[in-house]
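Response to reviewer comment R2.3. The reviewers asked that we include at least one raw input/output pair. We reproduce the pair for Phosphodiester glycosidase domain-containing protein here without editing.
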Amino acid sequence: MAEIKGINRFFLLATAPLFGLLIALILSGPKISWTTEPELITADAQQMNQAFGSISSGLEQAEETAKYTISSIRETAELYHKTTNTMTTIVQTAQNTAAKPEIIYNKRITAKLGSPKETIKSERIILELYKVNPGNYKGYAVKVKLKSPEAMKMTLGGDKLGGSETTKQAVSRYGAVAGINAGGFADSKGKRYPLSTTMLNGKYLNGFEPSYKDLFFVGMDKNGKLIGGKFKDKAQLDRLEPSFGASFVPILLKDGQKTAIPLKWQTSPLRAPRTVIGNYKDDQLIILVIDGYNENGNSGATLQELQDKLYNMGVVNAYNLDGGGSSSLVWNGKVINNPSDGQLRPVPTHFLFFK
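Raw output as returned:
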């Protein structure tokens, strides 16, 4: 009995707070009424039905809105893709249309050169090698499309003033894919110096010298465009922003017109190995390297012949570079022309081309 009484006391103590809470709610809280009257139950049911109906209607409306939104998004996406595709087509068509004149012009150029013997192509440059054989002389033409100014440079023999090296040595030393001899030179005390105004990396090697007699300066500007001519003062040349260039004689074509070839250069020598550089109106370069078996005037081409050929090819500007035994053309590590000295002559300046 004592154990049972102990349990009862424990039960009462444990449940006392609960009973106290229930009594407090009954005395102070809202009255909780439990009813079974049909009218009240029906009213509550109607309210619930109305609420569920409203919720259901809202859900249906939301579903329709979602469907419409998804449909609109799909339509917008489809319209976007169609518009994008249309714009891409328009841009491509515009690019193709814009390129057509260039393609047509290039075909006109190559039609007068024939089929290229070899081609070197990269993202920076396109070089095409052609044979030239009009009957009176033989040689090679190289058409150059510079896509980057960095694809062409002028180098100095042994990288020092007064130094000299063959075009093949320069090509090999710099890792170029092609190269030609550049300006004229003068020998002094066992050294070979560039003739007159010469620029390398945007700097004058020996100062500026105003053009005199038949001398000209030819080179490239910082944008990779051929520049050249006679310059009476340094400011006149500086305005063209030259990157590099060399000097020699004479000018063959200027602004699409033939220039007067001085009598001295028409006959001394009459025929000779030649190196000529020029450009078309689209800024592509053209190089002619003509073979000859000596410098006695009996082999090679006359300047008049080259002038006529370049003019008929549609070349805009053309400049005669150092010729005779200096004429050289190196292509993919090989000497392409036949140097009149029987071997390449070391010269102070070279124009090199890079992939």
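The helical segments are 2-28, 38-111, 167-174, 234-238, 263-267, 303-312. The longest strand covers residues 125-132. Further pairs are available on request from the corresponding author.
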